[in-house]
Structures are given as C-alpha cells and as structure tokens.
C-alpha cells in the first residue's frame, strides 16, 4: 500500500524526498521461523514535513525507522536517503551519510554524565571527525532554549532539559533528516510540549524532515500526518488529525 507524500509549507515540486522507501521488506531469521517485520512498505518523506509512525506492538515501527536511517539492511526493496540509494551502500558510505545528513533522538537521552551540555552536543561530531565550533554548539543550545545551561551536567538538568540537549546534539550539524524514536516517552506533559514545539520549529523554520515513532496520540497529533502500521504493512494515514482521532484509529488496530 503506497501513501501520498506528506507535504506542508509547499516545498518545491522538484525537491526529491528526504527519505523514500520503495517496496521495502525486512525479514529476520529464515525458514519457518522467519519473522517478516516489514512487508512491502512504500512511502516518501519530503523535506519540510513531520510524520509520526504508529501501530500496535510488533507492527514494524522501529524496524521502519532503522531501515529508513540505514541502521538496518532491508531484505527486499530500495531505500533512498538524502538523494542517495543506500540499499547496498557500504558501511563507510552509510557512516558518512549519518555524519552529514542525519540526526537521531531517542527516548533515553543517552547523554554522558561526566560531560557538560556543551560537551555532550559537541561529542558525536567530534568522534566522527566533523569540525563543530564552540559558537555552533552554543547556537544549537540557544535554539532549544538552553543557552544558559551549557556548563551544566545532565544530573543538574531536568528530564525535559536533557532531551532538549539531546535534540541540540542531533541538530548541531543541521542534518536534512531527524529520526526520533519515542522522543517524549520519558517526559512529563509540559516537557513533552516543549520538545514537540522544538520539532515543529525545525520543520517549519528550517525545512527539515522529521520521522517520529511514537505510541502517544498527543505527540502524533503534533505532526503533519500520522501513518499506521500493522503486521509490517502500512494500513492507514491521517493528516491534521486530533489526538482523539489518532487514539481512536490506533485502538481499532490494536483491537
């Protein structure tokens, strides 16, 4: 099942998708014990859009995210990321793409406790051999409202502030795509709203593409569109839906 591309803000018609999956299948194992985590998924995520991915447990949400980001190899089909076919790309090519084109945010903030916020933001690019200046790091923290917390360590920050540091870390190199896996799952409602607002500004202000896996209808309703998976297949799409509409649709898939 192929869904139309999710578009807001009228990006140019000639702009290629930031991420595209074409008839993607992913199997784990072989023979009678093989598990088909994705089954013929085709979808495109254009620049300047925010898409939430939802579905029952085991529906293939995280597998879709990992395949789209080049973290997992597909069994069948093609994956095009930042204009490049990565289906059979080498690890060197994938590593280079992750350095310059992708950002990742997860439920667990994965900050290094012994480092300050500034040092945490600068660490991944530095490990990857990418030069990021101190002003660039400070600007990233300023963008997430933590310009005055750069010298604080994670234990001195709230959960919401730690996730904002994680977002600054993901966005410091201005990647074309942000992949987010349950980014508000460990946050209280107020912190979650702040994080969702940051992601909205990335999409509307900087034209970045956000692909977010979530189980939270409120978080999903903040996106431009929500796509639903069941048994590894895309089965529905809602655009501009309320949290209640998202929750009702998810309940029918889980029932």
UniProtKB/TrEMBL annotation:
Instruction: Fetch the Gene3D superfamilies from UniProt.
Output: P-loop containing nucleotide triphosphate hydrolases
Q: List the keywords (alphabetical).
A: ATP-binding, Nucleotide-binding, Transport
Q: Name one GO cellular component term.
A: plasma membrane
Asked if Hydrolase is a keyword of the record, the answer is no
Which domain of life does the protein's organism represent? Bacteria
Q: Which Pfam families match?
A: ABC_tran
- Domain ABC transporter: residue ranges: 19-254
PROSITE patterns named among the record's database cross-references: ABC_TRANSPORTER_1, ABC_TRANSPORTER_2
The GO molecular function terms of this record are: ATP binding; ATP hydrolysis activity; transmembrane transporter activity
Quick check: keyword Signal in the entry? no
SUPFAM superfamilies listed in its UniProt record: P-loop containing nucleoside triphosphate hydrolases
Q: InterPro entries of this UniProt entry?
A: AAA+_ATPase, ABC_transporter-like_ATP-bd, ABC_transporter-like_CS, ABC_transpr_LolD-like, MacB-like_ATP-bd, P-loop_NTPase
Q: What is this protein called?
A: Putative ABC transport system ATP-binding protein
